[in-house]
User: Fold this.
Amino acid sequence: VATRVEPATLAEPRTISERLVRFLSRSPVHIALIAIAALWLVPTVGLLITSFRDRSDALSSGWWHVFSSHLTLSNYGEVIHEAGMGHAFLNSLYITIPSTILPLALGALAAYGFAWTRFPMRDTTFLIVVALMVVPVQTAFVPLLKFFREYGHLNQEFFGIWLAHTAFGLPLAIFLFRNFFITLPKDLIEAARMDGASEFSVFRRVVLPLSVPALASFAIFQFLWVWNDLLMALIFVSDPTKRPMTLQINDMLGTYNQEFHILAAGGFLLMVVPLAVFFALQRYFVAGLLAGSVKS
Amino acid sequence: VSAQAPPLQVPQPRRRFGRSGEGSLKERLEGIAFALPALIVLGLFVVYPAYYTVRLAFYNSDYLFDFTGWVGLDNFKDLLTNDPDFLDVSEFPPSGAMINNLRWVIVYVSLCLILGLALAVLTIRVRYESFVKSIIFVPMAISATAVAVIWLLVYSPDPNIGTVNAVINGLGGNPVSWLGKESTVNYAIIIAYVWASTGFAMVVLSAALKGIPTEILEAARVDGAGEWNIFRRIMLPMLSLPISIVTVWLFINVIKVFDIIYVMTKGGPGSSSRVIAYTMYSETFVGGHPGRGAAVAVIMLILMIPVMAVNVKRFRSERVIT
Assistant:
């Protein structure tokens, strides 16, 4: 969308008094921004501190008494072992990885078809796919669950949720990849075809290597989407031993109610992967989010 | 000034296999082969289920999700006129899940837009722009479940645990059970979700703001326009497209909001924080009325149709937003 243009750089003030005047005239802006940023940090910082406080402290005083309390890692130990979050972490991985790879692969193949081959009704079909992006997942709950129950109990395995996430991730994948693929230079693809490359090897050796940014953006978006999902898991993961972290934390709310030192540690385990992705891949992450903004 | 090199004229040798118009049969079959796996998955797991659900909305159903009897529009009629948890207009102010969604649309969308816009405009003026933006944006990365846990701690009724009540207590007030009172529960959840979503509005609007040519702003300043007038008469009109994109995104969020409510209140106290998506879940999987659940899903689908139309139209006008 927007090309980056540097914000207006005003002439640098020279004297101290000039600087002072400038700072004072801007100080409302600084104060407002710093206050908002602090306000935004407080809820997370509170939870982070709580996750390191020991039980008796956490139950008797607020997290802001951090300097007079015993800090410990034992909450994380308890959450991982006793509360089952370690197992749930693995389940989240089992659910998320195939649910990311499948729509990535199927979506890229289909997008190549829509971008660089010709077949009857190609553009109409593509428009239908675009429209499917905003079909609410709720319209699929009952029929999919019925189908999964009756054919091989897929909802007792991971297959059910893989299929559901793949199906609802595909329209966005196709949309993004097709829009990226058509921007690739035509000469390149024609040249490869003239050299006798099959369509599949044009796709694999020319188009895919050039499309890493689009593939990465979608992969990150879909990975976080599935990792962070609670609703689809609630419906399609029927075996309690296969539950992801989001559902596990929800169960813990019943067991640990106001024991926030435990809930906080669980919450941070759930957040650690998305936060790592965010800080490591910020550019792709933002691109993926913007791209995914058309999806429901 | 960059002069574009003239396009290279390469003599086109004859293709290995001839192509005419729509392409040879082989080419067409190849194209379909690329698209087919995805289209089969979409057909089986998105399109057909949606058709099934739309049909089910006109039937009674049971725990096996079979069609057990045609009831016409009764499911919709029951929901809209006979179910105070979904829509109750018999007294003022009206209540129910539909009204809660309306409340979400008004409060959540406008707060996110105003805060996002303000932050976009303000952060551009300071050196630590990216630092502030990261802090505001980070909650976008985490799940609604995690947001719910974070804000359960903030709202805890015990002033020795809950941040908000500790502040109120410190100022001499009485602690409030924000999530336990019908009058505050919706706004409490909405504020938690605003906290999570403002970063998106800010990032989109900030990027668009930087796309406004500085000459225009400078010219206005030279002509003596105040900062407020520059914001109102130059920035706002030039931001209308990104603002509409953000608004659509926020609207989609409101229609599908579920996780945060499920974790924070389970729709309670009573049914006071239920929303459409929550009713769909509870009617189908808790209340044992899949037919009525299907009717709710159809209502959600209908609410999405304008968004669908916008997406298709935007795509057709080749104005793709990424």
About this structure: The radius of gyration of chain A is 25 Å. Chain A touches chain B through 114 residues (CB under 8 Å). Chain A has a mean pLDDT of 87.
